[in-house]
Amino acid sequence: MLCLEIEMNTRAPTLGFDFGTTNSTVALADPGGAVRSVSFPLFGRGRPTARSILFFDPDEQEFAGHRPEPFAGNPAIERYEHVGGEGRLVLSPKSWLAARSFDATMVFGHRFDLEHLVGAVVAHMRARTREEFGVDARRVVAGRPVHFARGEGDEDDDFAEVRLRRAFAVAGIEDVTFEYEPIGAAYAYEQRLSDDELILIGDFGGGTSDFCLLAVGPSYRGASREERRDSILGTGGVGRAGDAFDARIIRNVVAPRLGQGSERRGVFGDRFPIPGWIYRHLEKWHRLSMLKAPDMMRRLHRIQRAAVESEQLEALLHIVEQDLGFALYRAVEGTKRRLSSRPEAKLLFHDGPVALDADVRRTDFEAWIGPELAEIEGAVDGLMESTRTTVEEVDRVFLTGGSSFVPAVRRVFEDRFGAHRIADGEELTSVARGLALRAAEAA
Fold it and tell me: Looking at residues 207-235, what average pLDDT do you find?
């Protein structure tokens, strides 16, 4: 999540970003401690979050030799819908920061480094803040996950942070201080306390689940950054969160209706499984567009012609050719959200030959995400063990982020700490608000 936080006093304004894999938020803290969030319009309605995406309009191709400029955030969604899905949609650029194998992509014949893609989102958020608050700041406090998605250790996390710092520089922001995202959530929770507490923060984003065990409360307000660091007992996290939950719905509900598990005929009448690599691309929204490459499309058409269930492959081709990945993603995400409050929810998606109409049960969904839940459990247990903290010593567990609504995720903490110790609130903006308060406090 992208949080822009601005300290409104005589000092130079300070920006703090909670920049997320899926969504980004922005908050402003004034000297008196009041916090306001930036609103991000989408189809005429203000929202507390902006999508962390880019869209390159195909009309830009008409200007040969000119580098195309992307739409970013919610305007990217509006433009994507306006042109009917034609063009290039770049989803979740943050998820690639720790991937050393990915450094750039080509868009309409022009090379875009990953830092420039991320920087375009940062620049948009900065401009939106200037538009709403009339402030253009160059000092930044930026949230970052404890462990970046696709990272495999501290070296990859450091590598990702360096790339993120370069992205801010691309957006014209050279002075950046990083803070762990769950620590930002801790500062937000602290404002409601009249006594000190030892709390466990669980911050669930699109690409990562991050945890932090620390002491907060009145005694710690106004402390220096170093003193605040001393109050942190430990951190942990895994590169699994909301996007991985969506992928499980794709694998178990969507993909089988688009040909996964079916067969194709060989030249001599033999039958072979439809290749699984197709559906692995389908599970990753930022990789789905790779199937539209000319060589990939030729392969897909050959497979479709030989498929026993050719109508299912026709539906898959339609999704790829018409760039319906984002629309399908929204349908899947909506089903996941409904399952948080209902025992069963429908997944509906209709467009041309695509006719998805499936009932999804919460019990099945929870079984599908079992591996991700096990990783989350392992990270929590590992944090408790590494800090030598007992369950009884934790006063409160504060959960934030979209996937904190998932009942199976909440049970991980309820089973260990008891439902009476679980706290939440402002799940989509708490990290942003906390970073805003922390930056104003430390200024």
Answer: 84
Here the contacts of 59-64 (C-beta below 8 Å, separation 24 or greater) are 59/83, 60/108, 61/108
Q: pTM here?
A: 0.81
The sign of the CA dihedral 262, 267, 270, 276 is negative
pLDDT tens across 83-95, in order? 766 778 888 888 8
Mean pLDDT for 195-219 is 90
Whole-number Å distance between alpha carbons of 276 and 172:
43
Q: What are phi and psi of 193, to 5 degrees?
A: -95, 140
Q: Quote the pLDDT of residue 426.
A: 66
- Domain definitions of the chain by residue range: 14-195+426-442, 243-342
pLDDT-derived band at 211 (thresholds 50, 70, 90) equals very high
Q: For residue 60, which amino acid is it?
A: E
pLDDT tens digits, residue range 120-134? Answer: 998 898 889 889 988
**DSSP helix/strand/coil, 54:** strand
Q: How far apart are CA 152 and CA 87, in angstroms?
A: 33
Within 8 A by CB and 6+ apart from 211, the residues are 146, 182, 200, 201, 202, 203, 235, 236, 237, 379, 380, 383
Q: What percentage of the chain exceeds 90 in pLDDT?
A: 42
Q: Are 116 and 103 in contact (CB under 8 A)?
A: no
In 3D, which of 161, 80, 185, 75 has the Cα closest to residue 125? 75
Going by C-alpha positions, the residue among 206, 211, 242 that lies closest to residue 340 is 242
In terms of CATH, what superfamily is 14-195+426-442? ATPase, nucleotide binding domain (3.30.420.40)
CB atoms within 10 A of CB 354: 21
Length of the chain: 443
When pLDDT is averaged across residues 303-314 and rounded to a whole number, the result is 92
Element (H, E) at 300: helix 294-306
